[in-house]
Specification:
The protein is built from twelve helices and five strands. With 287 residues, the protein is an alpha+beta fold. The protein starts with a helix and ends in a 15-residue tail after the last helix.
């Protein structure tokens, strides 16, 4: 809407002359052109890697500006990024980070930043590891954003297997233990993790990214699932227990069970949960 575009332009005017500013990438509803009259404007402010590193040290990576300055209820929701951040997101970003760039558009780019260097200015990556600058590509921002939002087919298939392992352990082991022990916390924990894993398996089968917990229910209703799946999923969330859990598990197994051999289930679960830290990643429910 016109008011959000005016607010975005006003924000860009406040940052474009700062020497660290490389670009402003607009994301969210304004980027997708489906904003409401009261919607805020979500942006990634792209600065050079040295500035990003300094901001990280000061724990200043996100903030809000121009609250109520442009229209009633307005504000600019800012997340800081850099060329190194964007390159890392394209290489191994988690789902919410990747999904946040869906439909993104470059609202402003400094003339000499139309092609950005993915290494930091001092030859180190964002996380401080050494980078060989001679071997680092420098794609344009549009290409880099496209790489963030795409995953190869092989990665999607591995995700189906990973989330199938989560379904089997949370539904077939932890949920059963909770019922046997009368442990209400474990019962609800296992049931919700079963529901999340079943949803994530459906997302992966459809090559759909997880936007975040508040979008799971809505996203699930937009991807293909077998008959009765949504009803079973809703039942697990509303009435956690062995009966509802077993029904959902049965539907998942009939649909996707052949993607992962039973004898690899435990190893896959341990690899993607208990040993995620060892591989430098995050547990399966978060990626």
């Amino acid at each position: 809407m016109e008011q959000q575009e005016r607010a975005l332009a006003a924000y860009i005017d406040t940052v474009r002359e700062h020497p660290a500013t490389l670009a402003v990438i607009v994301v969210g509803s304004v980027a997708r052109r489906d904003e409401r009259a009261e919607s805020d404007v979500d942006v990634y402010l792209v600065v050079d890697d040295a500035s990003f590193t300094a901001a990280s040290a000061e724990n200043r990576l996100a903030w809000i500006e121009r609250r109520d300055a442009d229209y009633p209820g307005s504000y600019i929701d800012i997340k800081l990024s850099s060329p190194g951040y964007l390159a890392a997101a394209a290489e191994h970003g988690d789902d919410p980070t990747r999904a946040s760039f869906a439909g993104a558009r470059v609202a402003y780019a400094r003339r000499d930043a139309s092609r950005v260097d993915e290494s930091s200015v001092d030859g180190s990556s964002v996380d401080g590891s050494s980078v060989d600058e001679s071997s680092v590509d420098a794609p344009d921002l549009d290409d880099l954003i496209g790489r963030i939002t795409r995953l190869p087919d092989g990665e999607w298939e591995e995700r189906v297997r990973s989330h199938l392992a989560q379904v089997r352990l949370h539904g077939g082991y932890f949920l059963r233990q909770a019922a046997e022990r009368g442990d209400e916390f474990l019962l609800r924990h296992a049931a919700l993790h079963l529901a999340l894993a079943a949803a994530r398996a459906a997302f992966a089968a459809d090559r759909t990214l997880l936007q975040g917990p508040k979008y799971v229910s809505r996203t699930l209703r937009g991807v293909p699932t077998p008959e009765g799946f949504l009803e079973a999923w809703d039942d697990v969330v509303a009435r956690p227990g062995l009966d509802t859990g077993e029904r959902l598990m049965r539907l998942v197994e009939e649909w996707l069970g052949d993607r992962l051999d039973a004898d690899r289930t435990l190893s896959t679960f341990i690899r993607d949960n208990e040993l995620a830290w060892l591989r430098g990643g995050v547990p399966a429910e978060y990626y």
